[in-house]
Amino acid sequence: MSENAAVADPDAGTITRTITIDAPRERVWAALTTAEQLGIWWDPVQLPDGWHAGSLGSFFWEGTPYPVRLDVVDPPVQLAFTWGDLGGEIDATSTTVQFTLTEHDGGTRLRVHESGFLNKPAAQRRAAMAENTGGWNTVLDSLTTFVTTPTEQAAGAQL
Description:
The chain has helices at residues 25-33, 35-41, 122-148, 151-154; strands at residues 7-9, 14-21, 45-46, 56-61, 64-74, 78-83, 95-104, 107-115. By secondary structure, the protein is of the alpha+beta class.
């Protein structure tokens, strides 16, 4: 894995992190788009309508839901979703997360780009960007461990 940290751009209201993972793109895609796998390395997720654009559901953090809407599901290249605040709703202050996967030297280059922070009030924007910048570092490190560790050990990769 490359050790590139997430970078926040307060002027654009975005956070971006690009890493290289020593695992096939299809393996990384499955970890990103399978509820059972997401629940191991990140957060539990419920998408009652399945994994397709327009599906509504929730991620859960310590038992509290935060809403998610799938915007783009293009296997195994792109996943994008809009998510609301913890315990909130998807609204004008929600942010959008885009995962782009490309094959790279036998592994996967993964770019995560979160946008929409400019829609939040200034004080809330700063706090959310600081929290999510650190969060993307933790989450993508956990993903990398999960997809590069044998299955029986991967359960220990969760946050």
